[in-house]
Design brief:
By secondary structure, this protein is of the alpha+beta class. It has six helices and three strands; from the N terminus they run H-E-E-E-H-H-H-H-H.
């Protein structure tokens, strides 16, 4: 299985690892089949994601996709984060092996899950905005 330089870089030197104590949104998503679990923490100020951190228990591709996902949404408006797709994560990493595509879906869903939590904390129904959070298929 071949990984791109970017995947290897984000796996070896993941960005934004850790947790945000006073996060405005926290999302956790797991894949029972492969055992990967991602927890995403967001700090949101005036509609802008000022900080994003993650904790991932999983394979190298899971760590790399969560690292890249946080990089792609940090400093961006919530609207941009809501448009983050697993394909954008894969593209930003210069590709993933087919058997590891589900890791990028996990990253997308972890971001959505954290945004969903953010809206819930604001007293806003997240479903019409964020959509349904699905457990990724293998």
């Amino acid at each position: 299985m071949l990984y791109s330089e970017k995947v290897l870089d984000h796996f070896s030197n993941p960005r934004n690892v850790g947790e945000i104590e006073d996060a405005d949104g926290v999302g956790e998503i797991g894949n029972a089949k492969c055992g990967d679990i991602m927890k995403m923490y967001l700090k949101i100020d005036d509609g802008i994601i000022t900080d994003a951190k993650f904790k991932t228990f999983g394979c190298g591709a899971a760590v790399a996709t969560s690292s890249m996902a946080t990089e792609l949404i940090k400093g961006k408006p919530i609207e941009d984060a809501l448009k983050l797709t697993n394909s954008a994560v894969v593209e930003a990493l210069d590709g993933l092996p087919a058997v590891k595509i589900h890791c990028s879906v996990l990253a997308e869903q972890a971001v959505r899950s954290a945004l969903s939590d953010y809206y819930t904390r604001q007293g806003i129904d997240p479903l019409p905005i964020v959509g349904e959070i699905k457990e990724p298929e293998e």
